[in-house]
Amino acid sequence: MASRSKPILMADGIRYRDLDGSGTLTPYEDWRLSPEQRARDLVARMTVEEKVGALLHASLRGAGGSFDTSADAYDLAQLEEMVSQKHISSVITRLVAEPEQFARQNNAVQEVAERSRLGIPMTISSDPRNHFQYTEGASNIGGGFSQWPESLGLAALGDVGVVREFADIARQEYRAVGIQMTLSPQADLSTEPRWPRQTGTFGSDPAVVSAMVGAYVAGFQGGDDGVSRDGVIAIVKHWAGYGAQPEGFDGHNYYGRYAVLPGKTIDPHFAAFDGAFAAHVGGIMPAYPVLQQVVLDGKPLEQVAPGFNTQMLQEELRQKRHYKGIILSDWLVTSDCNEYCRNPTKEHPQQIFDVATSWGVTELTQEQRYAKGLNAGLDQFGGVEDPQPLLKALKDGLITEARIDQSVERLMVSKFELGLFDNPYVVPEQASQILGNADHLAQAEKVQAQAQVLLQNKGNLLPMASVKGKRVWLSGMDSAAATAMGLSVVNDPAEADFAIIRASTPHEMLHPYFFFGSRQHEGRLDFRAGDPAYDALVKAKAAGLPSVFAIFLDRPAILTNVIDKADVVLGNFGASDEAVLSAITGKVHARGHLPFELPSSMKAVEQQNPAIANDSAAPLFPVGSGLSY
């Protein structure tokens, strides 16, 4: 029990927070009642404006109201306005700060919320923070969080126990700094090799994805039966079919606003979510793109994005799967897609304030989009903070207050389940101890090494059990890591005993003026002359060096012209230089298996069906490939 501005009540010798300042115990303040009872009482006391504010999931901003995550503090004056005037009680944080500072800033957010009329605490969400890949608006890195392989790496390792262990550690770290919701995991299937968001998935097999997602949800939420008081609400995404994007063009972008799932190809995409439902996931986030050529129960799917689609949300989620949790829209689905959203140029590149994802409903007004989304089944709208369109929709009769009450009650239940109404604060001094836990950091790095996939090992070059004093030529690796292993780093391949070349899957920047297009990996997957890693491999081969080609598989790379030049091909899904060297030396054995196939050519990629997993002709490395040593 903790308060900063509201008094503590004593009733029958028991302490309560007097959140409404009435001086008497109100049912929603009574922690002896169930979350559902407390939520019903609270919603009955809220004004229409407070209810509508609860349906908005806004962004915490840095100094001056900016979206700059390099700042180590929030703009609390801007937040005060959001809470007092707009009645917002859910926000995403993208702050990257040292653990104690991060915790203090999130406590300051809760202090602002506590001063509101009813003292409704803030739910603070975050994109994933415990991996390697950073994409602005989709993930974060830094700030002392333990660093694990991407979800693809956890899938490569194939151990649901490790997934649950990771999620449990991440849960402790999130709660230590005051984050109570994770906008993850991705239950999307990795079916289109060029799609840039595959690192966040658990691969291409719906049964594997389902099991991994279930373990992830249970670990984050603190148990198998839903959200616990010390848990973190998981928002599984993106319901459904998000990975089936032609040419891999992502749904954040206007040019990626469609996914195509002909026939029954959507069924595996649905099945990948089963584990999340079994673990009683707290939230679902619908996908961005309009799903084309889909027929459900004999009816063509309405050509609007899933967040506006009654068939996807009411019929498939609520009715067939009996889902009772929160449905949170992805970001900016109600915003207007202006000229620079549709067609940015070098002179006018798309900026963050030009981003919109209102696919299938762009011709509607904002008021109509909010109404359509809420009536289709959304409970909360991501990335927005203006309540006026929803208030106008209510005034104009496009939505009812009873429908709003349903969503607000779900949102408030989640806050009560987390214990936020009784104590939303964390102890900053403990945050650095939890985030800096040596055992957790060591386990994360061990898993980075284990999750690597040995694809080729000519002459049993690995493991190099004895490397002390050996001369190595490096490309793409920090020499300090190699020196720490006892290797002698040389600058001339002719002087080396062997080479280590770190690489990433090739990509192109096909849409440089789009906000996300300029940040995402698109286009080709094959190595060509001029690619630095490929040129380094050719140089090592010309020098007669045995070579280790260690590649980050954020997408399924085409290695056809690599395997004839490299002695060892070692795939990873997020690994430090130290973890790569651990696998090379056998200090920790790589024991992963590919969570998706690696195609043999770009022609095979272009001819495969984006909705179907592992269907390219004659893949170079089939799904499940992986050697032992």
TrEMBL record:
Residue span, Glycoside hydrolase family 3 N-terminal domain: 47-412
GO biological process assignments: glucan catabolic process
Protein's UniProt keywords contain Signal: yes
GO molecular function: beta-glucosidase activity
Residue ranges of the TM segments: none
Presence of keyword tRNA-binding: no
Catalytic reaction annotation: Hydrolysis of terminal, non-reducing beta-D-glucosyl residues with release of beta-D-glucose
E.C. no: 3.2.1.21
Keywords from the named record: Glycosidase, Hydrolase, Signal
Pfam family, one: Glyco_hydro_3
SUPFAM superfamilies recorded: (Trans)glycosidases (SSF51445), Beta-D-glucan exohydrolase, C-terminal domain (SSF52279)
UniProt similarity note: Belongs to the glycosyl hydrolase 3 family.
PANTHER family to which the protein is assigned, alphabetical: LYSOSOMAL BETA GLUCOSIDASE, PERIPLASMIC BETA-GLUCOSIDASE-RELATED
Name assigned to this protein: beta-glucosidase
Source species: Altericroceibacterium indicum
